[in-house]
Amino acid sequence: MDNTQSKSAFSNFINNKILPPVMKFVNTKPVKALQDGMVYALPFIIIGSVFLILSNIPIPAVAAAMKASGWAAFFNQAYTVTFGIMALWAAVGIAYVYVRNEGYEALPAGLTSMATFLLLQTLNIANPLVGAMGKAGTGITNAAGKTVMSGTAVAANIDKLPHALQGFLTSPVTGVINITWLGGQGMIAAILCGILVGWAYSAMIRKGWKITLPEQVPSSVANQFTAMIPAGVILIVAMLIYAAFSAFGNTDVLQLIYKLLQTPLQGLSDSFGGAVIIAFLVPFFWFFGVHGGLIMGGITSGILIPNTFDNAALYKAGKLTIAQGAHVVTNEFYNNFINLTGSGITLGLVVFTLVAAHSVQFKTIGKIEFVPALFNINEPFLFGLPIVMNPFLAIPFFLTPVIVAASTYLVIRFGIVPPLNGFAAPWTTPAIISGFLIGGWKMAIWQTITLLMSVGIYFPFAKKYDAILTKQEHDKAVAEAAAGNAEAAK
Q1: What's the maximum distance between 2 C-alpha atoms anywhere in the chain?
Q2: What pairing do the DSSP bridges indicate for beta strands 173-174 and 147-149?
Q3: Residue 51 · residue 315 · CB < 8 Å
Q4: Which residues contact 48 (CB under 8 A, 6 or more apart)?
Q5: Alpha-carbon gap, residue 123 to 118, rounded angstroms
Q6: By the 8 A CB rule, do 459 and 347 touch?
Q7: Domain segments of the chain: what residues?
Q8: Paired strand residues for 173
Q9: 3-state per-residue secondary structure call for the chain
Q10: pTM for the whole structure
Q11: Closest alpha carbon to 185 in 306, 303, 85, 301
Q12: In the predicted model, what is the mean pLDDT of residues 243-271?
């Protein structure tokens, strides 16, 4: 009785004290805009990652042939304008969703956010000669990727030129958009830009800061005039902010946000503790009936997707190692390990129901869950078994993703398997296949091992719970038979 009361007290504490503020935060306008707005970037991330693999096929002979034929350059072009500018898609999508949720015409807000995001950054790039010069320079390569002049030779030849010409050749290239800030490095700035533009745009429309045209004017034209004042105010403010940072700080907003905010957050997420905490919180929220995957995915995507982007860039450059700065915890680590076969990594339960279960309830739900589990969907288990608020299955439900996350972090960190390559496998990609796509055959083998971990952890708990269900079903059948006999005797 005391044990039941303590469980009830703990459940009440979670439901009354912990979940309400969490759900209040999750349902705020900025977080909802972030969750739904990032979805608009996903198609470009997934399609772009396919081009990334095609341009860097992990078979040396094939990769060399692709570069020599020129096709690698075409695939790189497609990668750059899809995956490579994902922060731009995020800036547009987040502002769009924010204003759409407020009930206003949303596309102008998304375009305003895009313009603001570009306006806040310095429109120049370092001269390619600077990176090519010196002993540590890349040198000059041809279309096939072969170095035709070393960095030392480049520097020696530049030094022969007059100083004025040297300065001209090595000065930054101006009047261009630096795509570095349109990718992973600009993601946090893009999120903030999208949220702030969406908020400011909606507030001005709500207060009537708009040009209203006669009813006879077509709505397609009138809507653009409606957007003119809010967009103009936002862009003017953004220009003044850019001018202030440029004049007094010799920098821009995106560089400052990356240095002070994004770099520490990426470091925090890409740690052993970060992996374990994320892995624990997903099933924790689910256990109390709240969509843990949606909550944690929305909160962490802005940090983990840049980690994915950084790994993709290293993979593209042939430098995908921990020593070269590759991340362990990426968005694919979250999708394809922490949530493998569904939140809680419940494949072990599926296997138990198919080979060892005796209760009708376990067998029936197991048959229903088998196919969805192949595509990382386990709602039939969560609500049908159920796992939600079920103390018999709480320990393996919490423990399995934590053990998988911790062990996966360690085998990548210590070089047993390579870091994830940046390929954005859709979260519904079946296990083992997804492992091969995101990290090659070694990762596929490791993913198989994690599935065996799930089986080993769930089996003893599922066996005990199955015995309880079997006894309940037997007692119910006996009671019904007794009631039937009594009725017949009458």
Answers
A1: 116
A2: unpaired
A3: no
A4: 78, 79, 82, 83, 84, 86, 424
A5: 8
A6: no
A7: 31-124+173-251, 127-171, 272-489
A8: 125
A9: CHHHHHHHHHHHHHHHHHHHHHHHHHCCHHHHHHHHHHHHHHHHHHHHHHHHHHHCCCCHHHHHHHHHHCHHHHHHHHHHCCHHHHHHHHHHHHHHHHHHHCCCCCHHHHHHHHHHHHHCCCCEECCHHHHHCCCCCCCEECCCCCEEECHHHHHHHHHCCCHHHHHHHHCCEECCCCHHHHCHHHHHHHHHHHHHHHHHHHHHHHCCCCCCCCCCCCHHHHHHHHHHHHHHHHHHHHHHHHHHHHHHHCCCHHHHHHHHHHHHHHHHHCCHHHHHHHHHHHHHHHHCCCCHHHHHHHHHHHHHHHHHHHHHHHHHCCCCCCCCCCCCCCHHHHHHHHCCCCCCCCHHHHHHHHHCCCCHHHHHHHHHHHHHHHCCCCHHHHHHCCCCCCHHHHHHHHHHHHHHHHHHHHHHHCCCCCCCCCCCCCCCCCCCHHHHHHHHHHHHHHHHHHHHHHHHHHHHHHHHHHHHHHHHHHHHHHHHHHHHHHHHHC
A10: 0.79
A11: 306
A12: 88
Is 158 or 266 the better-scoring residue by pLDDT?
A: 266
Asked whether the beta carbons of 252 and 120 are under 8 A apart, the reply is yes
Per the structure block, which two tokens stand in for 7?
A: 């469980």
Q: Which residue type is seen at 31?
A: V
Q: HSE (CB half, 13 Å, CA atoms) of 267?
A: 7
| pLDDT tens digits, 396-426 | 999 999 999 999 999 999 999 999 999 988 8
Is a pLDDT exceeding 80 seen at residue 240? yes
Q: Hey, how many other C-beta atoms are within 10 angstroms of the C-beta on 437?
A: 22
Counting every residue written for the chain, the total comes to 490
Which has more pLDDT, 203 or 302? Answer: 203
Please name the residue that has the structure tokens 């192949």: 374
Task: Compute the distance between CA of residue 314 and CA of residue 282 in angstroms, rounded to an integer.
Answer: 29
Task: Categorise residue 145: left if φ over 0, alpha if ψ from -120 to 50, beta otherwise.
Answer: left
Cβ–Cβ under 8 Å, residues 349 and 381: yes
The Cα 191–Cα 333 span in angstroms is 21
